[in-house]
Specification:
578 residues; alpha/beta; Nitrilase/N-carbamoyl-D-aminoacid amidohydrolase; 2 domains; seven-stranded mixed β-sheet; six-stranded mixed β-sheet; 19 helices; 15 strands; 15% strand
Length: 578
């Protein structure tokens, strides 16, 4: 006589699910998982939202003809609604919206296949199999195609500070695994009720519910311990003025509106300075809100005679005589063209009388690029005298949003897209000492990439320059005040916990914010409106398992899931019959 499988919670009234039942559960799960994310933001229901999809996993048999189609359609509907804001920047981005939703939808049947293989093939309890399969799928979508981490299940819990402390061990994906564990335990309670009514074994259901409760209690205990260990710094905090304008994308891209954008942000900055009793240590403008970009010219670039004459015409006769040699004239012209872009920036910085971090573009003219130039999205630090201190170039441009693969070698590819040109990736992180604190910078979507932020902190720490604060420059004016703002902010909160480093955000149209190393949201700007936030930032500096190991434990989940998935490959139709 074979022993009862340890994975059984209880026999359900429907041991086999037919087509209609799978469709209902797939779509019910899509609706529930959408409602727990912004804009509905019913975040406490996240602990219940996975139940319909878990019911598909738990069913003894799927009698549906092609259940993966139902699950994919459910996932597609969910993602179309969740990332609806991708259609807002430009009519052409609607294509990307649908394509990305179609790709992300694949993770729903993938999750069910992996979880069913673990439950019904490997005899694992659902309360273990479901979170492992879920974390594997969320980690995969954080890796594939550069990574898309918005609308993670764990992100729904950003308000529950005790729960999200686990992120310094397992990241936001691990917090999502906890939510899935509790949902599986709740399904066990439902099974317990059914089993008791039918006089069946209730032991496995009790164990599943108890295991889920134990996991949640352990996470809350760990969170309370980490919160209690928040360092107390009695030194002066870093005083940062975050300037949030409200400039819609069309205005930003209007070449004739550069002066209007600068005036808009300048007026907000002066008002913010006037409202304070003292000058801040640092003023921050968002991504690309200084519309006259920097210019650099490669010494190998030979400037035309017309450019030389027009540029050097302003020099006095003695200087022109000294520049008679061609190489001297080339060098003098390059220097003049580059310094011309810095002069206006310097005049603003001197008027503010404080260090200034401003988002702008940088173009490097070089014969070594197929298009003749490389373009960078940058954050430039200037001192109170207007001198440049350091410039950070965004290291992780967004595929299809900021560059097209292979287009640097084949520039004609950009004619097929709304992008005039693509961005090149920067090569190193940057940190600057301001008022005794090390200030690092990243740009826009980089706060959504856990490994990118981890690498930034580790790289600077190896140089003896571990950041005391990370400043994120963002332009979310693309998204018209939509729920993208909420998702972007939630991602930044988790990054702060993972690396135990405060993050401040200056975002065009919002949300500008100040987040401490425990993930508490201390300040937040309005949605699609102007504001100036005066943030007092205190270093955290604690170590974390995430900094030490990164996604290695989550990679182990992916490996186990891959083995489970491949172990079912020889059996065609395993999802339908397993």
């Amino acid at each position: 006589m074979n022993p009862a499988p340890c994975h059984v919670i209880a026999k359900t009234p429907m041991p086999a699910l037919n087509d209609r039942q799978v469709w209902v559960l797939a779509l019910a799960g899509a609706v529930a998982m959408f409602l727990v994310q912004p804009p509905a933001d019913c975040w406490m229901l996240a602990w219940l939202a996975p139940l319909p999809w878990l019911a598909v996993v738990q069913a003894d048999r799927l009698a549906a003809t092609h259940p993966w189609r139902s699950l994919w359609v459910g996932g597609f509907c969910h993602w179309l609604a969740a990332i609806h804001w991708l259609r807002l920047p430009h009519p052409a981005t609607s294509i990307g919206w649908v394509a990305l939703a179609a790709y992300l939808a694949c993770y729903v049947p993938l999750f069910v296949v992996i979880a069913r293989r673990l439950v019904h093939g490997w005899r694992w309890p659902l309360v273990v199999a479901a979170p492992l399969a879920w974390m594997a799928c969320e980690q995969l979508r954080g890796w594939v195609l550069g990574g898309f981490t918005f609308a993670a299940l764990g992100h729904t819990q950003w308000r529950w500070t005790a729960v999200i402390q686990l992120a310094d061990c397992l990241g936001a994906v691990g917090v999502g695994g906890v939510v899935m564990t509790v949902a599986a335990g709740l399904l066990g309670l439902i099974g317990l009720t059914v089993a008791a009514g039918r006089r069946e074994r209730i032991g496995p259901a009790v164990l599943a519910a108890g295991a889920a409760a134990g996991v949640l209690a352990s996470v809350l205990g760990y969170g309370a311990w980490r919160i209690a260990g928040t360092p107390r710094d009695d030194g002066p905090p870093l005083d940062v003025l975050l300037v949030q304008g409200s400039i819609d994308t069309e205005l930003k891209h209007d070449p004739d509106a550069a002066s209007d954008v600068a005036q808009h942000y300048d007026e907000l900055t002066m008002a913010g300075l006037a409202a304070g009793a003292s000058r801040p240590d640092l003023i921050v403008w968002p991504e690309t809100m200084w519309r006259w970009g920097l210019l650099e010219i490669d010494p190998d670039e030979v400037l035309s005679e017309n450019v030389l004459e027009q540029t050097l015409a302003s020099r006095n006769p003695e200087e022109r005589e000294a520049d008679r040699a061609l190489t001297d004239r080339q060098a003098a012209c390059r220097r003049m063209l580059e310094e011309e872009r810095l002069e206006l920036l310097g005049s603003f910085a001197r008027r503010y009388g404080s260090r200034w971090l401003v988002g702008l573009d940088r173009q490097v003219v070089t014969p070594h690029a197929p298009s003749g130039a490389r373009n960078y999205n940058c954050g430039l630090f200037l001192d109170a005298d207007g001198g440049p201190m350091a410039c950070y170039s965004k290291m992780h441009p967004v595929m299809f949003g900021e560059y097209v693969p292979l287009a640097e070698r084949f520039p004609w590819l950009y004619r097929l897209t709304p992008l005039a040109a693509g961005l090149s990736a920067g090569t190193r992180p940057v940190a600057v000492a301001i008022a005794g604190k090390m200030v690092a910078v990243n740009i826009c979507y980089e706060t959504a990439l856990p490994e990118a932020v981890r690498s930034l902190v580790l790289e600077l720490a190896r140089q003896g320059r571990r950041p005391d604060v990370i400043v994120n420059l963002t332009n979310d004016g693309w998204f018209w005040g939509s729920s993208e703002l909420d998702m972007h902010l939630a991602a930044a909160i988790f990054r702060a916990v993972e690396v135990r480093t405060p993050i401040v955000i200056a975002a065009n149209t919002g949300f500008s914010a100040s987040i401490d190393g425990t993930g508490r949201l201390l300040e937040r700007g309005p949605r699609r409106a102007t504001a100036t936030l005066r943030a007092s930032v205190r270093p955290d500096g604690r170590s974390s398992t995430w900094l030490a190991w990164g996604s290695v434990p989550l990679g182990a989940c992916v490996a186990v899931a891959a083995v489970a998935l491949l172990s079912g490959c020889p059996r065609r139709g395993s999802l339908e019959k397993s």
